[in-house]
Amino acid sequence: MSTAAYRIQGATGEWEVVIGLEVHAQVVSKSKLFSGAATAFGAEPNTQVSLVDAAMPGMLPVPNKECIRQAVRTGLAIDAQINKWSRFDRKNYFYADLPQGYQISQLYHPLVGEGHIDISLDDKNPEADVKRIGIERIHVEQDAGKLMHDQHPTMSYVDLNRSGVALMEIVSRPDLRSPAEAGAYLRKLRAILRYVGSCDGNMEEGSMRADVNVSVRKPGEEFGTRTETKNVNSVRFVMATIEHEASRQVDVLESGGKIVQETRLFDPDTGTTRSMRSKEDAHDYRYFPDPDLLPLELDDDFVEDCRRSLPELPDAKRHRYEKALGLTPYVAGVLTAEVETARWFEALLAEAAAKQGKGEEAVAKQAANWLTSELFGALNRLGRSLEDSPVSPAQGAELLALIGNGTISGSIAKQVLEKMLESGANGEMVGAEAIVEREGLKQESDTGAIEAVVAKVLADNADKVAQYKGGKEALFGFFVGQTMKAMAGKGNPQVVNELLKKALANYV
Amino acid sequence: MSELTELGVAAIREGVAKGEFAAVEVAEAFNANVAAAQGALNAFIVATPDKAIEAARTVDAARAAGKPLGKMAGVPIGMKDLFATKGVQTTAASHILEGFTPEYESTVSQKLWDAGAGMLGKLNLDQFAMGSSNETSYFGNVVSPWRRAGGDNAALAPGGSSGGSSAAIAARLCPAATGTDTGGSIRQPAAFTGTTGIKPTYGRCSRWGIVAFASSLDQAGPMARSVRDCAIMLEAMAGFDPKDSTSLDLPVPEWEAGLAPSLAGKKVGIPREYRMDGMDAEVAKSWDDGVAWLKDSGAEIVDISLPHTRYALPTYYIIAPAEASSNLARYDGVRYGLRDLPDGANLQDMYAATRAAGFGDEVKRRILIGTYVLSAGFYDAYYTQAQKVRTLISRDFTAAFNHCDVILAPTTPTAAFALGDNSDDPLAMYLNDVFSVPASLAGLPAMSVPAGLNSQGLPLGLQLIGRPFDEQGVLNAGLAIESRAGFTAKPDRWW
After folding, report:
1. Which of A132, A294, A476, B32 keeps 20 to 30 A from B377, CA to CA?
2. Which of A60, A94, A96 sits opposite B243 (nearest CB)?
3. Euclidean distance between CA atoms B176 and B187, whole angstroms
4. Domains annotated on chain A, with CATH
């Protein structure tokens, strides 16, 4: 990916786009932010609603400590300040999906203050071209319910299952300068949330949505007026929103117009945004401290417990893979980009090291390369993800051990993997050792046997040997190929190489 | 049976426990009084005679079986219709909740039933507890059982918002009742009707299941005809509730056992700012009586200053409406209660029609005030400023309690006024709360006890305000007054 500054070419010159994202991430917790009702996705409408969520008269909110814990852990994961004193405010507005007539949120004193996330735009080398994106705050708040407009010809129905579910609103600084940066930021944020386990990051189910703030300016000038496009629910759509919104704003400005501060909606069908309401129509939310709730006071022990509960995070893990395991930044980046990949890799690594009686660092490259090229390629063809891989880390380690101890070659290993997957598709996964045994794929390392084949190959190709001896050394590969072919691929490549070199040198 | 309805909480509990009479007899006697008075006094929105009998039967059976009896065993009470009662209509005296029957029981009412009390019915109140005369109820105003001496038969206000509670207790329709107090809604009606009521420290009683008016001020408390009865009932009502984040996580003291009428070694503070220009002479006189009684009980009287008193009322009338404007947003016609859906109406039309039809004028007035003071551009000038003043008022009390243990003041600036007298003048009505609001803003325990009758034969109340959590000090000072005031007057039965 290009690391050059992203610019929009307008009629009057180049424009820079300035982006800030407000990400709403649903907190992973069994119950809602202020009630005991369940939070599972996809339940029958209005089956996960407590008296509090339905805002029955006299009902009171009680904070769910687990939601607070998850938000604090998230804050710690982005290196943010944890505010030991925070407070909930009411955001007042009327809507049918908002039973209380207000959303309990945190305007004045959020739980989490300044933090940051490092992103890289270089896919090949995540250590290069790193940019630090500031995060202004994370606050916790209630989600609203959902209106259903397709159930009745003249009326709308309300499903309150989501009403009161805990959200983290993660507000970035306007530090992003291109759709690609916004995409990288969202992916990185999603990865961190999933590592921490505070949000499942499932954008299709609405667990993560972004409000996209976009403005444009001539490079070096003051920030322009921004628009806010609400509730965009995929990385791709966020990038499309920015592209469309930035060029729309440039068009407006260059034709002498002004950008109106307004709320907009993204239409995935057309890839465009349209106005929802302008600043003049904006709600006056009449925020004030929620008198039903005491300020949230956290002690040092609680914050320390949260800190101790954090797993190794993607950047730290990637650095460790590079330094301790000797992996390339690219491979380390691929392995750590998703928490599932890293978990799978570490399980594979542990099994492989144990099976081969070596240290993890000694088998790391073998395991990493096999996982990122062989298994990923195979899963790709099957249309599967690592989470539902038919091959387990232990089964992968068994295959790696066969390569490691010279029983099979790398190319035979490819065949073995295919056969493992076939057997898996047919019901029971057959292990690598059993397949090698059954198919007779064991590698030939016996020098006598190989020497015999080598001798025959050289004899059959005397003209090529002469050319080789005459200086056309590239023909060495041809001899290797012929030898392997004659041995049905089972010759130990190292031994074949050695014996071929020796035989050619001695050839007269 | 009529003498049974003269008994208070302690006497009924004792009589039932000793077998002098059955709990069912008590319930029947009060049920009869409730039915007989309803047309004239309108104290109840809904009577629940069967509930009272059922609870009494349970107590009688428990006694017969030799089981231990609760603190309120055999005592039938009135329940202010602000407390959610499972299976019994709960309205907050508003049209918008007419017909609303909760599937849940408020924590406080449940504690009372668990203690052996029974429910005579749901008591009338000012709509959403907003008012000082009971005239804002959608279900018609309560009429005080008291009348002025000398043949003036003008219908008098029972006070508010717990006016159904005060009238019912004074008229012997119940020995005790629940009240709630946001700015004086227990104390002012108690003072108007010669009854006793205590608002405990904010957080003592759970607010869970009480229709909210102003969350940072609302507090439930007992109303009865004696200090002891209030102590008993408060013990049954109070206690930590994990369902209310503002509930105090403290054990409930044994207030009844701790009652002691001697105030030897105690200091009683007299706040000079409460002695206002043009104060009703008879109210001033009863305050002096109170001072003499407390001196007589062994207390030392000290002058104290609460310098921010005059800002209390305006502060209250910013904070309470602000919270109310938000608390009442949930009454929108979507999920329960009244829905007014004109032909072709959209969501906004439905909100407007429902809330226009469902809320009374005073409620609308306060929602408008509250919405205004929270609006962009006004928030700092009103709400933020009011919160600062609230802190100053609280500090006044903290400073004063360095010099005294309990504060004595009148409960109200006047005796009960006639219905209709203040109903066109909200500000005059709000002035009724001038002595009660400061303790509410500071979250302090405060009670009203009867001090005597004025020259028109109407009761006057004295207010005792204590340190946070010191309900005992307040109750004991109240007991000292009660035992010296010798208040035995009761309204002549004209209904």
Report:
1. A294
2. A60
3. 14
4. 8-306 (no CATH), 312-439 (no CATH), 447-506 (1.10.10.410)
